[in-house]
Amino acid sequence: MTATSEPPLSVSTLPITDLHLKDILKTLPKSCFEKNRRKAWTSVALSIAAVAIGYGAIFLLPWFFLPFAWLWTGTALTGWFVIAHDCGHRSFAKRRWVNDLVGHLMMLPLIYPFHCWRILHDHHHRHTNKLEIDNAWDPWTIDGYVVSHPFVRQFYRAIRGRFWWMGSIAHWGLSHFDLSRFHARDRHKARYSITVVALFAAVFFPTLIATTGLWGLVKFWLMPWLVYHFWMSTFTLVHHTSSDIQFRPASEWHEVEAQLAGTVHCTYPQWVEILCHDINVHIPHHISVAIPSYNLRLAHQSLSENWGQYLKIRQFNWELMKNIGDRCHLYHPETAYQTLREAGLVPTGRGKTIAP
């Protein structure tokens, strides 16, 4: 059902720069924003059950089933992050303390400090696709690339290419434990979440190693954790990266171009979408973070009917990832992206770049 509070605007005659987010919001059903306690806690139960099944498989099945068990368990743990994601946006529960409690608990096995992620992620939503300000897969300019350290350039080439799946690990480690990245008013919350994660790790890892050995650490935690980061890297990269999605300097940035036409809806295998609570249905989330994950499909249907000409729809496959990895390297003010070769920057293998 997509009943709206007022008739939708005629999009056929409206340039996107003449639109505002409030115009888009008016066309969404009010039910998209309704919190449902049963659906919210059902998603928690589903994620806990899925992870329990995964760890049961890791523990009980023969060794040659481990890759499948790791894939399942890591994907299910991504669902835990998505629940925490709702908590971070206060769309899981009406009470803030419930959101904070559930958010911390869901992120603990991932060693993710909840408030640190929540604060930095809010910055991403306020500045989506704003050049050099957005903190999620923001493309470098040529000047920024050239002046960076050779090791940093090499790492950037890797995560913008075939090693995109490492991007989330770098973002996790470099951004969320550095208190200098937070305003003074937020540091006590960031420090609290880091302390919670540190205390959990101080108990969890020694206990796991003492009871299962180093192989147990790899088998029960590291491999599912790497699968989780594969999905987080993939989701966030695909959500905001395409050869036709432009980042804009702050002076040229427009909210509807960024939030409606600058984010991507990508379909994945159904079991992935179920375990990850429809995180791939991403465009409505950038129209309003108040939409709970279980209402994203309803909101997407409405957006498709009213604003479909602006939406970018993709299918997850190797060709998609190859196109992003081969084309989307550096910022270009007219064509959105350019490759390193197009920019005259070709790695020599000695930490330097030369014109071709």
Per the principal axes of the C-alpha atoms, what is the gross shape?
globular
Widest sheet: strand ordering: 1-2
Oligomeric status of the shown chains? single chain
Average pLDDT, rounded to a whole number, is 93
Helix and strand content put the structural class at mainly alpha
- N-to-C series of helices and strands: HHHHHHHHHHEHHHEHEEEE
Q: How many individual β-strands?
A: 6
Query: Over all CA atoms, what is the radius of gyration?
Result: 21 Å
Secondary structure tally, helices: 14
Distance N terminus to C terminus?
56 Å
Q: Please mark out the parts with pLDDT under 50 across 5 or more consecutive residues, or reply none.
A: 1-7
